[in-house]
Amino acid sequence: MKILVFLSVILIFFSFGFYFYYKTKQFRTSLPIRKKWYASMASIALGSFVLFFGINQLLLFQTVVTYIIAGIFIILGAGLIVYNSKAAKHYRSFLDEEARLNK
C-alpha cells in the first residue's frame, strides 16, 4: 500500500511539473495555434494532477466522504484528460502548417 501512495505522489509531482512547463511554453510563444496546443497540453497535465490526487486520497483515507470527493476528482480529471487530448490532437494537425507559414 505504501508503494502505491509513493507512486501516486510521484505522479502528482510530475503532472504538476508538466503543467507548469506547458503553461510557460504557452505564455512564451506568439503563434496562436501553438498557444492553443500548449494550453490543451497544460490542461491534460492538470487533469492528470486532479486524477492522481483523487487516487491518492482514496489510498490514504477510507471514509464515505473521501470516496465521494475522490470520485468527483477522478471523474473530473478523466474528463479533462479526454476532452483536452482531443483538442490537442486537433491543434497538432495545424502546427506544421502554422510553422511553415510563419517562417
Automatic annotation (TrEMBL):
Transmembrane spans: 6-22, 37-58, 64-83
Keywords from the UniProt entry: Membrane, Transmembrane, Transmembrane helix
Name this polypeptide is given: YtpI-like protein
UniProt source species: Planomicrobium soli
